[in-house]
Write a structure and sequence with these properties.
This protein has about 240 residues and is mainly α. It is about 75% helix and about 5% strand. The protein folds into two domains: about 150 residues, Helix Hairpins; about 60 residues, no CATH class. It is rod-shaped and about 130 Å long.
Amino acid sequence: MLEVIEKLLLLQDRDRKILRTEEELAHIEPERKALQEKASSTQSGLENAKLKVKQLETERKRLELEAETLKTKIEKYSIQQFETKKNEEFRALTKEIDNCKAAVIKLDDQQIELMEQIEAAQKEVATASKVAADAKKLVDDQLTQLAARETNLDKELEQLTANREELAAHVDDSTRARYERLLKHKGGSAVVGIQHGVCGGCRLKFPPQIVLSCKQDQEIVTCPNCGRILYYTKDMDLAVSD
């Protein structure tokens, strides 16, 4: 194998590790946001459950106040009945009292129904509270692990890039420039082996002369289709498959 190919393979191995680490780092923030949204969602569920209880309590108090107002009217009408000496006015007050009493009964029934709803809603709050607490604990643990993973990946990337330029400097300028272009466009597969007479990158089937040129190790050989730099090792089957 050409010495320059060996150097390129070392450089490519380093670049692949760098790319893989950068890709993992790129997924950290989306993962963090997804976890935070998960915790926020369960907390929103809890807040909505609490709001429902508050709204029901407000409505119950409104009905209670309305019932108290009617009861006050009943007392007022009863006093007026006691004071009046006119039968027609007495009957009219009786009718008002009966109407108020009927309204109070209806309001009491509505309050009972609301109290049942409040009890059910309070159970929902208890359930939502547990779900939110469990989710927060789980998410906090996962965020801690994610932060540690991010720190480790940052350190790993720093170590990988520390002497990357030193490895690249061992390759001549022209070949390195070609490699860098391929690396940018081929996703870490700039230098590929050939197996059964096909390109390890684009899978193009080579004519025999390209396979032989690669085997002779006298010059850099590239794929006529994708432009990748080719190499071979003795454990590769160079025979062109049918």
